[in-house]
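2024-03-11 09:14:02 DEBUG pipeline.ingest accepted 1 chain
2024-03-11 09:14:02 DEBUG pipeline.ingest length=720
2024-03-11 09:14:03 DEBUG pipeline.predict start
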Amino acid sequence: MWRKLMVVTLVLAVAGMGRTEVKDVKRVVITSAKKADSWIPGNHGVLPEGQAKGDTLYYYTSVDNDAIGLTNGGTYQAAIKLTPTELGQYGGWSLTQVLFYHHETGTHSGQVIIYAAGTDTMPGDIIATAPYTATGNGWVVVDLPAPGVMIDPASDLWVAVEITHAQGEYPISVDGGPAVAGKGDWVYSPDGIPWAELRDFSLNYNWNIAAVVEQAGDSLDPMPPTNLTAYSDYTMPTSIAVSWTDPTTYFGGDSLTSFHIEVWIAGGKDTTLVDTVSAGVQADTITGLTDGTLYTVLVRAVDANDSTSPFVSTTWYAGGSPYPAPPQNLVANVVDDSHIELTWINPATQADGTPLDDLAGINIYLNGTLSGSYSTTAAGMPVVDTIEVTPGTFDIYVTAFDNETPVHESDPSNTVHVVTNAHSGGPDGFGYTFVDSDYQGGPAFQWIDITSTGTQIPLGDDDWDSVGLSFQFPFYDANYQTIDIQSNGTITFHHDYFGLSNRPLPTNAYSGPWDVIAFYWSDQNPSSTSGHGAVYFQDFGDSAVVEFYEVPEYGGSTYNTYEVVLYSNGNIRMNYLTITDYSDETIGIQDATAYPNGDWYLQYTYNGDPIVPHDSLSVLFAYPVSVGERNGLLDYRLIGTVTNPVKGVSAVAFTVPRATKVELNLYDVMGRKVREIYRGRVEAGRHSVRFDARGLTGGVYFVKMVADGHTSVAKVLVVR
């Protein structure tokens, strides 16, 4: 869809011909990279004379450069990934400088960060940092602490420049691309953008970042050994076998004939020479180690004149990695609203690929919290397990663990996103709930046509207007008698234009956070010149309707008709008559206190996840039966039904701090009282009373507890 150019928070933009809104983060496969023996000039000119001390790794073309920044300001890291073997060497190299082009005329301070290899889309640990101050427009040369970062020929390095800047600044430049996939264009923001590629933001550029690498020796020093490997598993818990390829020349190119290899090991605080190996043997076994300890093995060549090569190193656990490999191929199948069938394959090895030592079970995590464990010792075998959940939306992953003390737990498996019931939700922290017309027992679709009886509201593109209500409309903890109808499918209460493109809830977008009713938040144009598009309002005394009739999204050629109904009791109904464009929308409600860490908000869907709005759909957001007094709820507490969902007979549990009279009543989603569950006097403590759901229609209900003026509400799902 064609979109307007705009400035938004946590979005990358290019400074130059225009600013492009960033969408959708994805991942791609790493491909090859490039190496330069000298600096390649672009329109920003040549690297200052004498600064490129060694070979330079880069991802540049000679195409003109632009600049990039977070359009509302912030902190981010621009990074490139370097593969040391692109140098054509296998050891004896170190990274000593990082260079980047600073695009702004002002001053920025920050740091260069060197990361060890991680995954294809995530760097590993930080192994070096160096501060910088960039003054004015030009290349910035940052020296790493001596002797630099030793190149590991088996691992990538991530070279990142961290910058903090103000709105409207674009401090780090890019060249014209095209981007080198998986290499030259990574970006990260701690404010919300995970590690991702610029090309995934439709910005096909490479960062103007370079890394200078140097040989770590003079011409009379031996070249280091290459192809260093180490191995140990649970059958050899106190030793590590190492092997390497002997060097054959000096750095200057002369043949190396008389030498030996020193084998060192680092574990804890000490680095110790453990063996001297004659030339040609190219292997050794280090003994006397501690099972489960991670060691660094270092080897170097020493010639007859005691000239030494640089060390090369690798790491390995004595006894192999103590951590199991993660389970593989996690798949989830929804059985019903309350049950999910999980299948996965148990690990067959430890995390380093050595034979599996022991396996005690699998931990199951729901939304990052441990939900339960499955006992299994079957290495490499498929497993099926059914878990019970409260209806909702879940991100699920599993880990493997062993039977040792302390327990060793693997990295997570792949994560699966599961929705067992997206058609009802809540309560949020205030007590709102929602249920749609697709849910059994939910509200029926009811369209209220006001195109011939209501007042047309003359909204233009990116516009708003205020209208008065004949009743006090309660929304969260405030009452309103004036609402602001926004052209982009929202209602607010702040007498100002809310904003453009939708965001997930909760949000602080557009000078927020605000109180918002998002009944179809998207970039829309009610004043389209296509002959379509109108907004109507009508007040019925105990309710009011705002209808968007055949309104197109901005620049679109399809039209949506929908409405929101505000009731005097605080309920909110959203009706969708015809929906033809649902590529980007937010439906939900939010109190201003929800962002960033509050819980007074409910989101029904965002960009079609988990629900794609469709024709003849109604969504009811129900105001709490009674907000009541919110102090002391930890003492006067409605725990809820003992089982949820309820099928047949269950019980309702609650606590009171002192002897008092308690009332428990059951309400439907429209706020109508269905039955009395309990009325009587109880002593201080925890209590449970019988709840017989037989005879009730399946669906969502609410139990309301009143005791000493304290009120609380709990949702219960009744199934047949």
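2024-03-11 09:14:41 DEBUG pipeline.report The radius of gyration is 32 Å.
2024-03-11 09:14:41 DEBUG pipeline.predict end
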